[in-house]
Amino acid sequence: MARSRLPLRGIAVFSAISRLGSFKAAASELNLSPSALSHQIRALEEELGVQLFKRRGWGIALSSDAARYAETLNDLFDRMSRATAEIAAPGWDQTSKSVVRIMTPPSIAAHWLVPRLPEFIKAHPNIDLRVSAIRTADGNTDDFDITIRYGDATRWKEMARPLLREVIQPYCAPSQVGRKAVTAKTLLSLPLVQSRENAVSWEAWFRQRGIRFEPSGLQLLQIDPSYVAIEAAVNGVGVILESSILTAKYIKSGQLVAPVRETQPPAPAYWLMPLRRGVRAPVQAAHAWLIEQARHPKEF
Q: What is the CA radius of gyration of the chain?
């Protein structure tokens, strides 16, 4: 078999389960959910074309072939661990215990989380924080310790706690409006920037106010992703319909203004998914830090 075909992740999961004797113990050691382990084992069995475990009411049992396979793998993993520890820097084998993996939507990562990371590093110098900016639809929570989702309450209310609530409203550079009074209707005379992932479209925003929206007679620009659209607005390209959270530092600096204040109900929010049982102390610390940051907004 070519090395490139070796299903290494599934092999590692199988080795841990066979060595520890249970899915639960292996899930704890690998910091994965039991469902993620089951998925890996099913994928490995499909790849190899054999059944590795016999499921019984009281637990699991290895077939004779699988037991020999596990013995070989466990010996190889022991040898790899020793060889890796010999070449690695002192204390390397403790590093994995301090790793905390966070999955968060790209925009909130860039505009809210990253500016706060220096404080986190200062407060938790021994935590190896790893942030992955991934769209809500694309991420697999089983691969991360902490997950931030985005959406409305109908989807996430029963599954997670609200972390950050936002208001969606128009923003633009001060030069776009000057000192003149601006109403929702007068915005139609300005260039309007829209992004595919915006929670609210310009069409929906104007419709909520009983204003006819006819694209053919407007100056519409499509700019993606939203953080690029925000930069475009800062540079006077047009008016964006964006989050109060993502634009906060630009409002503070005077680079953006809100020409028409939002009076509609709150928009979708960012949600913090609950931690799995038995997570490591560094994960608990990072989770608590996120909640604390959200409770006490920082001005930049």
A: 25
CA–CA separation, 172 and 236 (whole Å) = 7
Neighbours of 212 (CB within 10 A): 9
Q: How far does CA 57 lie from the centroid of its chain?
A: 37
pLDDT above 80: residue 264: no
Q: What is the pLDDT of residue 59?
A: 63
C-alpha dihedral over 167, 170, 172, 177, to 10 degrees?
-130
> CA separation (Å) from 105 to 123, 140, 270?
24, 12, 9
Dig out the tokens for 206 from the structure: 């104007």
Task: Read off the pLDDT of residues 205-223 as tens digits, 9 standing for 90 and up.
Answer: 999 889 998 888 889 999 9
Smallest CA-to-CA distance from 169 within 197, 192, 200 is with 200
Instruction: Quote the pTM value.
Output: 0.63
Judge whether 275 and 159 are in contact, CB under 8 Å: no
Please tell me whether residue 204 adopts helix, strand or coil conformation.
helix
Among residues 56, 100, 107, the alpha carbon closest in space to that of 243 is found at 107
Q: Which two tokens stand for residue 234?
A: 């800062």
